[in-house]
Amino acid sequence: MDHNTAYTEVVAKNLSLIVPYRNRDEHLNIFIPYMNKYLNNINYSINIIEQIDNKPFNRAKLLNIGFDLTHKKHDYFCFHDIDMLPECDNQIYSYTEYPTHLATYVEQFNWGLAYGEYFGGVTLIDKNSFIKVNGFSNDYWGWGAEDDDFLKRCKNSNLQIYRRLGKYKSLYHKPNGDTSGGIVSADTLKNRELFRNATTETYKLNGLSNLQYSVECEQKIDNKTTLYKVKI
Ligand code: UDP
Ligand code: MN
Question: I need a labelling partner for 60 at 20 to 30 A (CA). Which of 121, 160, 198, 205 fits?
């Protein structure tokens, strides 16, 4: 009898929770203790990826960096906006073998999705799927469309896509992007065009495969939480 097989089956999977971050310390101070309490019976670490250069914020690239820095010690990954606090049972953060959208019942979107195809806010994915889609695109600077691009990657790679019913409270910040009084920034317009033109061919060239960055500082915040200051 092969005892090893039986043992591997019961070993808990390890979650890397990855948070893109810049200049929202009020949210950070609420988010970290909240998530540490919330995830208590899950095997996890929290990894805050802070963009410290002066370029426009690049959420998707920060998420790729979080994956790159933590994938060796983790089995699955949660890409998590800092202004969303889960209020439902934490089993929605349990292991998945598919791209799985969690931010489905969100206070700031009137307790629903931002729009029908919304795939942002909080998503969960296993290591193989994330590598298969070559991660996120690194090219979405400023606000918008990087999450739509990610959904397109998953669909084009023929991955099954799931949603779990995640109920999220929202932390307030000044509106931006699409929500700032109907004025759409040049960055956002450019991102939308990038998204329209994205194909299976462009995915292969852009993502984990061409990721470049430097970690300027790595700081332990508590037992479970690490802050990485990066230039991208
Ligand atoms: N973010 C940040 N600083 C910024 C912009 C964005 O830390 O200046 C992070 C933060 O985790 C935030 C996420 O990126 O929750 C998504 O950005 P934002 O909340 O502005 O977008 P929304 O979804 O509200 O339109
Ligand atoms: Mn927000």
Answer: 160
Of the bound ligands, which one is closest to the alpha carbon of residue 81? 1
Q: How far is the CA of 181 from the centre of ligand 1 (A)?
A: 17
Atom of ligand 1 nearest to the CA of 83: 15
Prediction pTM value: 0.95
Question: Ligand 2 centroid vs 105 CA: distance in angstroms?
Answer: 14
Q: In whole angstroms, give the CA distance from residue 153 to residue 165.
A: 22
Complete domains list, the chain, with CATH: 15-231 (3.90.550.10)
Burial of 200 (0-12, 13-18, 19+ CB in 10 A): exposed
